Amino acid sequence: xxxxxxxxxxxxxxxxxxxxxxxxxxxxxxxxxxxxxxxxxxxxxxxxxxxxxxxxxxxxxxxxxxxxxxxxxxxxxxxxxxxxxxxxxxxxxxxxxxxxxxxxxxxxxxxxxxxxxxxxxxxxxxxxxxxxxxxxxxxxxxxxxxxxxxxxxxxxxxxxxxxxxxxxxxxxxxxxxxxxxxxxxxxxxxxxxxxxxxxxxxxxxxxxxxxxxxxxxxxxxxxxxxxxxxxxxxxxxxxxxxxxxxxxxxxxxxxxxxxxxxxxxxxxxxxxxxxxxxxxxxxxxxxxxxxxxxx
Length: 295
Known about the structure:
single chain; alpha/beta; 8-stranded parallel beta barrel; 12 helices; 8 strands; 13% strand
């Protein structure tokens, strides 16, 4: 089975750098985009979990898309998170994101209200039909409280505008069946499972650790698809401390702290997230250094 990646193989869900006063740091945003492109990324995902999308307004989300798209140009894809726990508002977000220039939409399962699978199907179909943009399903039940069951994914994969799945379910066995039954391109949405999911047929990553080790994730992907599983495994094992350290607490918090260590404008978080403590920063530095990151 030769499944083509619709948006390249390496994407990162980008942070949104905020100033201490809580405003978006637009100059910092540009520097982060250029940093990611220089690391070998094929695309950037904005307005997602790591971008603290629940804390940004609709106008801010649109301006983020426009700004990132203007910087990236023809150097890569720009995917935009669109969707929340209310379908009509999600549809409006989809329309706005498409108009702002997003190449595709990444749509999370409606959260908090725990819809049945019939509601999940109806939601994703409504989002697929809301704009001209194709849809990447984002399955992350640990955050949303609702998984997208295998049968549901298989049904949704029949829709011509649902073109990929970001898998952060943490169950490679389920992912294996989805890939076998549908041929839907799957992107790993859990960094520590990047290599395991490649082994069952994933086409690439939507990473968080791509902020800090994007060039090495690129090497892992290149090695794997060149048939060099030994090198891919070596890189995976070298990066284990980075994966673990980045998620000792919430990923955006630790990623922003890591970027600051690297001399990049990670910025501050918005409540309800809080910035990393001194103790957390000390541990993160140890984790990054153990994983070969110069900080």
